[in-house]
Structures are given as C-alpha cells and as structure tokens.
Amino acid sequence: MKFLVDAQLPRRFCGWLTEVGHDALHTLELPLGNRTTDNEILDAAEREQRIVVTKDDDFVQSFLIAGRPKKLLLVSTGNIANDELGLIVRGHILEIVRAFESASFVELGRESLTVHE
Hints:
This protein is of the alpha/beta class. The chain has helices spanning 12-18, 38-48, 57-66, 82-100, and strands at residues 2-5, 23-26, 51-54, 72-75, 105-108, 113-116. It has one domain. The chain contains four helices and six strands. The protein has a six-stranded mixed sheet, sandwiched between helices. Helix 4 links the parallel strand 4 and strand 5 (105-108). Helix 1 (12-18) packs across helix 4.
C-alpha cells in the first residue's frame, strides 16, 4: 500500500510503514515540505493513489463532504510520545492494511482500530 503522511505526524511514521513493506511518503518530502497545502496533499494522494495519514480533522471533513482523499487513516491518539505512537502503529499495521482492503476511512486510536463504513 502507498501512504502519504501529513505534517502533524513524525517523519518516522513513514519508517514504521516501510519496515513492513509499504511505500510511505511524508509531506517533508514534497516540494513545499510541511508548507504544502491540504489541497496539494489531496492532489498528490489522488495522483499517486496514496492513503492520507493525518491527525487533522480538515481531512475528515473533506473526505465526508467531497470524497477526498479516496482513502484516509485518521490517527486519533491525542498528544502522545512518538515511541508510544510507534508501538501502536506497529501493533495495528496488519489490521490497518486488512481494513483498507474493503474500507476507505480507518481511525487509529490508543486502544483500538475503528473501520468507518
């Protein structure tokens, strides 16, 4: 799977995804880095068929209202240390991948993974 990780999440989030065989790109790797607008992120995700990974509710609203991005992983862990976030991501990565085989909107919390139908 291909992912595009938004600015509010650490760059190492990409590493957690790539270490299990996925293609992950952080906004820091885009031409405008973390100054890339939401619309430019949506365009890149659509063009490259990437799942947007974010903490930003603006992407949830865009998904619900306009159907953009096509696939969305919302990280709703609140403020959390990067090491703890890494443990959560690594612990749920197989479930996340399985969820995106049939769903378009998946939410990762501290305790669980929610698949929105």
